[in-house]
Amino acid sequence: MAAAPAAAGSGAGRGRRAAATVAAWGGWGGRPRPGNILLQLRQGQLTGRGLARAVQFTETFLTERDKQSKWSGIPQLLLKLYATSHLHSDFVECQNILKEISPLLSMEAMAFVTEERKLTQETTYPNTYIFDLFGGVDLLVEILMRPTISIRGQKLKISDEMSKDCLSILYNTCVCTEGVTKRLAEKNDFVIFLFTLMTSKKTFLQTATLIEDILGVKKEMIRLDEVPNLSSLVSNFDQQQLANFCRILAVTISEMDTGNDDKHTLLAKNAQQKKSLSLGPSAAEINQAALLSIPGFVERLCKLATRKVSESTGTASFLQELEEWYTWLDNALVLDALMRVANEESEHNQASIVFPPPGASEENSPPHSSTRTQLPQSMKIMHEIMYKLEVLYVLCVLLMGRQRNQVHRMIAEFKLIPGLNNLFDKLIWRKHSASALVLHGHNQNCDCSPDITLKIQFLRLLQSFSDHHENKYLLLNNQELNELSAISLKANIPEVEAVLNTDRSLVCDGKRGLLTRLLQVMKKEPAESSFRFWQARAVESFLRGTTSYADQMFLLKRGLLEHILYCIVDSECKSRDVLQSYFDLLGELMKFNVDAFKRFNKYINTDAKFQVFLKQINSSLVDSNMLVRCVTLSLDRFENQVDMKVAEVLSECRLLAYISQVPTQMSFLFRLINIIHVQTLTQENVSCLNTSLVILMLARRKERLPLYLRLLQRMEHSKKYPGFLLNNFHNLLRFWQQHYLHKDKDSTCLENSSCISFSYWKETVSILLNPDRQSPSALVSYIEEPYMDIDRDFTEE
């Protein structure tokens, strides 16, 4: 997913399909023939001078050339359209001409999308290309925007039917002709105007689809606060329209280049953040604020997200929408899947489903059609899945935005989590047949499948909802909250304040809460499943923050640790992403928890198993370093406790014994520093730097920091590269100061994850960067003069 998170990202998908289809035409847009007329038109279109429209030719000339070139009469129709669309026209004849043009383009575009285009066009130049080349796109934009013009104080009006035809033709041209969408995107006044066309239900779907495509290629993000009467527009949408509108919102509230991608360097992100601070809020942030200011907006999204299939739109209105989809090529593949599923289930049930042809009304439908338009359950489910995908994406983005706490409060109040819990078995993680709900050209496990995408978007939402927020306890039901209290009571420790403060009227109902349901499906997930990564991330987010013994025990009692170890050791997982998520989760689950280490030792009960586990850890420290950090921190705490249970674990646990050895710690430390550099630091691997600092902070506590630095120096010399590691570490620590001491950086994550005060982090870094070569704890004391290279400029403009 991604873009944008990824999982909604439908606009990007259309962009890719459009690019693929343009390539499939064999590049017809490059060198037009016959003669030089088309070349002149293209040049005029690019330069704004010379020939650019059909109106610049005579009808006789166009008719003669059409006989040779087979332009399907499109230039002549455009000439008539221009003549009948002047300001004082009644537009009746204009609409008739549009009706002639529309099928010439729609048939071509349908073939374009459905990949049945090899022999569909006898003419040298596709109709959409000719339509655009002779000025058709610009003319339709002018016609659509006529209502913005006032004559004697009165604004012109055009019918919804005419607007619909114009939008249909524009979209078909965008699909088939390269560059049209980008040209429309440059017309900012037109893009803003399009939003006003969504006030009519008759033109809503066509308008929304065209806007989404345009925004997908627009270089600068549109600002929703510039849309006239935005609050009124959105408030008047019915639930079906609001769900479709979320497709547009997915583009307008996601940062165009968020910098949150793990592959973006922190140098680049920091530079971007400095630039953003001087420019003020981004367009995406402004758009998020604009939406949150609309009364009832989040509440309606929550209702859409939690609506059961039985509560969805009735059959008649859904059929009407499918009829619209039939003419809107963006949804052709979805419709293909819907129709195929319907046919399969119809044959199975020995029943038929009658879809009215485009343009047919309910009054003209066949006799007894009411008994033959009952949609199969799987089609209703598909309908809800497609809606919920978009809605969950928007909620997820809002949860990660600047107004996160406000969104959290509203989501809790409107019972999103209990609602999703009630849908978990029947919709989100339902069982389905191998043939159901898979898009044409894809398989069931493909990330493009609506079923797959819904699950991933759901898991991303849970991750965002739980991460470092006390509302995470809404994922439990009342009985499970009582269990947390009982765990704290038995361990003779204070109850977590957030548990005590949880509003019991807002938690999950039923026998199991959402977190427990997630654990159940997680343990049943096949080894090769793409969901493992997202499931582990969602559960880990529940544990993040200040370590809670009760939270850990709640998950340990449900066999989570054994499941993780099975996946790492016994299934010998090969996916780097899944391994990283499992190591991170295991670290949070075991940190400071004696019972977890006992369970670990009970499962990893042979040297052979332990060696497999170590092999997985050492295969990629970028993936496993968070576990190394958690075990190192736990060892330090256990060594300072006087308790028989702790002493027993210290003496028996293979993992603690392994980490306690200084050569092991030095091996980790050397490799952690060596695999990262300032220029390659990302959100994904910066944890290696912080883990190396944890090892040195704990050494400093024991007054062993000089020893560790001296050992690093020796390891450098043994590799025949004196100075290369410590110089690199010096640069990394200088960057650490710039990155973490910035006033906008939140240091609580480092404190909560390590239980080491941030002041101690800062002091340790300062001591290591001390320029005094006489200091036994300064890095420069261990870098020989000829190899000193600590003042390199690593800033990125």
What does this structure look like?
Residues 362-374 have a biased composition (Polar residues). InterPro entries: ARM-type_fold (IPR016024), TRPC4AP (IPR022162). Pfam families: DUF3689. GO terms for molecular function: phosphatase binding; ubiquitin-like ligase-substrate adaptor activity. This is Transient receptor potential cation channel subfamily C member 4 associated protein. 62% of the residues lie in helices and 1% in strands. With 797 residues, it is an all-alpha fold. Among the domains are: 36-220, Leucine-rich Repeat Variant (Alpha Horseshoe); 696-796, no CATH class. It has a two-stranded antiparallel ribbon with strand order 1-2. Strand 1 and strand 2 form a beta hairpin. Helix 1 (10-24) packs across helix 11 (201-217) and helix 35 (662-674) packs antiparallel against helix 36. The protein is elongated and about 100 Å long. 41% of the residues are buried. The model is unreliable at 1-35, 116-125, 258-262, 322-345, 350-374 and 433-444 (pLDDT under 50).
The CATH top-level class label of the domain at 36-220 = Mainly Alpha
What percent of residues adopt helix (DSSP H or I)?
55-70%
What's the arrangement of strands in the largest beta sheet?
1-2
Q: Which fold does the CATH topology of the domain at 36-220 refer to?
A: Leucine-rich Repeat Variant
User: Radius of gyration, Cα only, in angstroms?
Assistant: 31 Å
Q: What is the name of the CATH architecture of the domain at 36-220? A: Alpha Horseshoe
What is the straight-line distance between the termini? Answer: 29 Å
Described by strand count, sense and barrel closure, the largest sheet is:
2 strands, antiparallel
Shape: elongated
Q: DSSP helix count? A: 40
Strand content: under 5%
Structural class: mainly alpha
- Low-pLDDT segments, ≥5 res: 1-35, 116-125, 258-262, 322-345, 350-374, 433-444
Quaternary state reads: single chain
How confident overall, as mean pLDDT? 81
Number of strands: 2
Region (Disordered): 349-374
InterPro entries: ARM-type_fold, TRPC4AP
Protein name: Transient receptor potential cation channel subfamily C member 4 associated protein
GO molecular function: phosphatase binding; ubiquitin-like ligase-substrate adaptor activity
